[in-house]
Structures are given as structure tokens and as C-alpha cells.
Design goal:
FAD/NAD(P)-binding domain; 436 residues; 12 helices; globular; binds flavin-adenine dinucleotide
């Protein structure tokens, strides 16, 4: 068969790899000039660095398996993580159960209660029972108003903006599950990172697809899915020289976000409603290359409404700075609406908003430490998972025969991530090859 794939991110490339392995002719079209989608990289000091901070948990089996299959499993490094939280104008360590006991922003009773609630969630295996309750309601009820107000409400608000009260409990449950799965008996968390960056995974996939006779075209967006008598028959694509061609395919997989999919093809109202029911948060990620480290933790949660960013992720507190020509690498991250002021600001304006807050995390910080600034804006960064979500997920098999959809809104109850896009890409490839 001839199979067309729209998008060379984790889902599209892993599906295309399996199509090629099964002996089919596969062609991948990617709008961007690079592979990897949201997990793609830029060059920093001679090394590759993700546009948005990325790591893996020990339970991320699908990506670990594909790396082994590709012969690059040895690139994985597992590193003890260090986590902090900024609340009440202070930085607290937040990595281990002992740190939680010392977390004086909460009363001693609340610290114990928070640990017990996390344990309760870790032991809970039936997320379906949580489907009709929001994370905000569940946490307030089980952990109490003060833990919610001091810790979880600011973190939920940071991640989901004004939509934070509508996020369903299975999303929060799955976050706790993955984080606990990556801890040892003493509660110390280990995180994974491929030493040659996530780029190695996606570049190797591209290489293998090509070596099996497949094609991957960059800077070649799909502008239309061609449909005849209710069945997809091909794709109209725009080439880098501006010309457009129509290519015939027997099967098509789209991995574009739900809001972009209806622009490619006419769909019936019922399916359009499902696509439209899930909102996405965008992300604005600033990367600072610096001469000095800002903090000594990898992941700093910001539980403070005043601070204009949600998290500080100091990548070179996880991986050695020698990978980046000796630069310290700091991400400042925010999840925001795609139309928000922060999303639309210029890079310079954004730095002016963020930089004055950095001394809060290290009083010695000076602007001269910053040697380079990169900003990345992601429009479909995080689907907002509402209550009873399992009833609203768009089907992979679209109402147009021979046309399938695999994007991050279809990952549930787990939170979206490279692991789950790879798993979904491979599962959907198998389904398509079985005949739908
Ligand atoms: C800030 C941030 C931090 C993250 N951190 C982590 C992390 O720590 N660990 C982790 O595992 N995951 C993380 N993720 C999530 C992870 O990156 C994504 O879930 C995953 O990469 C999504 O892969 P995908 O293939 O489903 O979608 P995408 O990566 O979005 O791929 C879709 C592709 O389709 C292309 N496309 C769109 N329209 C067209 C068109 N018309 N024609 C051709 N191509 C088109 C896009 O350019 C894109 O390359 C993070 C994401 C963000 C934004």
C-alpha cells in the first residue's frame, strides 16, 4: 500500500516506521524544517537541546522500547532529579519525603496530610471512578483548602490558566502515578534523558524510514486531504518552492492538532463537535544560555500568582553543561492561551517581563550572566482534559474512510508526552494495517 502521514513528530514518525517495516510505501509530510515536532531541538554550544525541556519517567516503556529497537537504547541516562517549589516568597526543596516534612510553608499537620493524600492517589488504580470530578474539587475535599490554596491551585492555574477549575481528576491522578513510578523505595525520583538529546530518537527514525524506501519531506505542509465518495484518496501538498501537487494514497494518518484538522478536510458535524470540545493551552518557553547557574535544582515549581512564569527548569542541573559548550541552560516556561499577551509578545518584551524576577531565585543574579536567549511558542502544547473525557475523545478512524487521526487529545488518562505519542502512533499503525 501507499500510506501518507501528515506530521513528523513522535506519533507520525513512529507510525511511519512501522508502516515501512511492514513493507508498505510510506511518505511523511512535515510543515516545519525539522523533525520531532514539539520534542524537536535547536543547536546550543555545539550540542542539541529541546525547544521545550524534555525528560522521561521510568514507566515510559514505549519510547524506551523503540530506542532499543533502533539500537540507541544505550543513549539513555537515568539521573536523580532535584525539585524545588517557590511559594510565600521562598524557595523550598521538594524532592523527597524528608523535604516534604520540612516544607514549612504548610503547617506540620498539612505536610503529613499532603503526603498521605499523595500516597492514597498512588495506590488508587481505578481512575474511572474519578472521571466526573475535577482535580480542584477532589484536592479541596481530600487535602483541604489550605494545601489546595498554597500548593495545587497556583500550579493548576499556571498550567491551565483560567481553565484550571475544569481540569478533571484523572489528569492529576495520572501525573501522581507517573511521578511515583519514577521513585525508588526512599522516595528519590530518577528522570531519564537521552545523552544525545531527543533528536537522536527522531533523526534515527527518519533515517530508518528512508533506509526502508520511505520518504520524509520537510517544509512540505499538507494543505488538503483529497476525498472521493467518502474515502480519502490522497493529499495536496505544498513544496518548499511554492508549487503544489496532489499525491495518491491508499491510507492516510494525520497527526495535526484537532483545531488544524478541519482546515484540511470536510468533516461531519458530530465529529467536528468532538474535535472542538477539547481546548489546548499554548506554551511559551524561553531558553537562557548563561555563564552561571541560577539555582541548584532541576525543576522549580512556581506556586505564586505574582511571578510571571510557571516554572524554572535548569537543564544543566540534570545534564552536564559540557554538552552545551559550557553554557548553563535555563528554561522559563508558561502555559498560556494562544491569544494571550505573553504568547504574542516579542522575545525582547518577554525577557523584560521575566528577567526582573530572577534575583528572587538567586540574589547574585546579574543580567550579564545571560549570553543568549531563545524563545519557542507552541500552539497545541497541552490539551485541557475535562470531566468524563473518555466520552468526548474523537475516534482515530475519522468519518472519512481511509483517513485516521492520532494527536495528543486522544491520549487519556495519561498526560500527553513523547512516550504516549509513540505508543499511540504504533498502535494506530497496527490498527490501520489490520483494516481499520
Ligand atoms: C513545553 C513542553 C514540554 C514538554 N515536556 C515533555 C517531557 O518532559 N517529556 C515528554 O515525554 N513530553 C513532553 N512534552 C510533550 C511532547 O513533546 C509531545 O506530547 C509530543 O512530542 C507530541 O508528539 P506528536 O507527534 O503527537 O505531536 P507534534 O509533536 O505536535 O507533531 C505534529 C507535527 O505535525 C506537523 N504539522 C502540523 N500541521 C501540518 C500540516 N498541515 N502538514 C504537515 N505537517 C504538519 C507539526 O509541524 C508537527 O511537527 C512537552 C511538550 C511541551 C510543549
Amino acid at each position: 500500500m501507499r500510506i501518507g502521514v501528515i506530521g513528523a513528530g513522535a506519533a507520525g514518525l513512529s507510525a511511519a516506521y512501522d508502516f515501512a517495516r511492514a513493507g508498505h510505501g510510506v511518505t511523511v509530510y512535515e510543515a516545519a524544517p525539522f523533525v520531532g515536532g514539539q520534542a524537536s531541538t535547536i543547536e546550543v554550544g555545539g550540542g542539541r537541546l529541546e525547544r521545550g525541556y524534555h525528560h522521561l519517567f521510568t514507566s515510559d516503556n514505549a519510547i524506551l522500547e523503540i530506542m532499543d529497537e533502533l539500537g540507541i537504547g544505550e543513549s539513555m541516562r537515568w539521573i536523580p532529579s532535584s525539585v524545588g517549589i517557590y511559594t510565600d516568597h521562598e524557595v523550598y526543596r521538594w524532592s523527597t519525603p524528608i523535604d516534604l516534612l520540612r516544607f514549612s510553608a504548610l503547617s506540620f499537620r498539612d505536610r503529613i496530610r499532603m503526603g498521605m493524600v499523595a500516597k492514597k492517589l498512588q495506590r488508587m488504580k481505578d481512575w474511572r471512578a474519578l472521571e466526573d470530578i475535577t482535580a480542584a474539587e477532589w484536592i479541596r475535599e481530600n487535602a483541604g483548602a489550605s494545601i489546595y490554596a498554597k500548593v495545587w491551585e497556583p500550579l493548576l492555574r499556571g498550567k491551565f490558566g483560567d481553565r484550571f477549575e475544569s481540569v478533571a481528576m484523572p489528569w492529576f491522578w495520572s501525573k501522581i502515578q507517573t511521578r511515583f513510578a519514577s521513585r525508588d523505595r526512599l522516595g528519590r525520583e530518577k528522570l531519564g534523558y537521552p545523552i544525545n538529546s531527543f533528536d537522536e530518537v527522531f533523526e534515527t527514525l527518519e533515517e530508518r524510514i528512508k533506509s526502508m524506501g520511505g520518504q520524509v519531506y520537510l517544509e512540505t505542509p499538507v494543505t488538503n486531504v483529497l476525498v472521493e465518495d467518502g474515502a480519502a484518496t490522497g493529499l495536496r501538498v505544498k513544496h518548499p518552492d511554492g508549487t503544489e501537487t496532489e499525491e495518491n494514497f491508499d491510507l492516510i494518518l494525520s497527526t495535526v492538532p484537532s483545531f488544524a484538522f478541519p482546515k484540511l478536510v470536510d468533516l461531519p458535524e458530530t465529529y467536528l463537535k468532538k474535535l472542538g470540545a477539547v481546548e489546548y493551552m499554548g506554551a511559551v518557553v524561553m531558553i537562557l544560555e548563561m555563564t552561571h547557574p541560577l539555582t541548584d535544582v532541576y525543576w522549580m515549581n512556581i506556586a505564586d500568582h505574582e511571578v510571571p512564569f510557571l516554572g524554572l527548569i535548569e537543564h544543566t542541573n540534570l545534564m552536564p553543561k559540557e554538552l552545551y559548550g559550557g553554557s548553563n541552560v535555563l528554561y522559563l516556561t508558561n502555559y498560556v492561551e494562544r491569544q494571550s499577551e505573553l504568547f504574542l509578545m516579542s522575545d525582547e518584551e518577554l525577557l523584560e517581563v521575566y528577567a526582573p524576577w530572577l534575583p528572587r531565585f538567586n540574589p547574585a543574579f546579574e543580567r550579564s550572566w545571560i549570553t543568549r536567549v531563545h524563545v519557542n511558542r507552541v500552539s497545541a502544547a497541552q490539551p485541557v482534559i475535562g470531566t468524563n473525557y473518555s466520552q468526548h475523545i474523537p475516534e482515530h478512524q475519522t468519518p472519512v474512510s481511509k483517513l485516521f487521526l492520532a494527536n495528543t487529545t486522544q491520549i487519556y488518562p495519561e498526560d500527553r508526552g513523547t512516550n504516549y505519542s509513540i505508543q499511540m502512533g504504533r498502535e494506530i499503525a497496527a490498527t490501520m494495517l489490520r483494516g481499520g
